[in-house]
Amino acid sequence: MVKNEKGEVEARGLVSNTKEEVRQFLQPYHSGIAVLEATRNWELIYEWLEELLNNIALAHPSRDLKNFLRQIIKLPLTSLGGIANIEGE
Predict the structure, then answer these.
(1) Which of 52, 77, 40 is nearest to 86 (CA)?
(2) Most buried of 60, 64, 81, 86, CB within 10 angstroms?
(3) How confident is the model at residue 19 (pLDDT cuts 50, 70, 90)?
(4) Spatial distance between the Cα atoms of 84 and 33, rounded to a whole number of angstroms
């Protein structure tokens, strides 16, 4: 999911776990910020994002973090879209 500065969704889609697909999806947003959940392949995806974007934030998927974020932004965290809202807070 890609959001603009106002928090509005600009793009949403399923991207295969390949460098080329990630690059194609994010190419129009080269000056953006990425929020990446620390999952099994995070290091590889982080390296790909470093080549494409100026700023990358790594989020931990623990239940404690999600509970904390719910209190801050008052949104259900069913996807990274909720976590990405922190940048604007």
Answers:
(1) 77
(2) 81
(3) very high
(4) 9
Q: Which residue has the tokens 């259900």?
A: 76
How many angstroms separate the Cα of 65 from the Cα of each of 13, 40, 59, 62? 25, 17, 8, 5
Using a pLDDT cut of 70, give the percent of the chain over it. 66
Say how many Å lie between the first and final Cα of the chain, rounded. 18
Residue with tokens 């949403």: 12
Inter-residue contact 84 to 3 (CB < 8 Å): yes
Q: Residue 34 and residue 23: Cα distance in Å, rounded?
A: 13
- 33 with 56: CB under 8 angstroms? yes
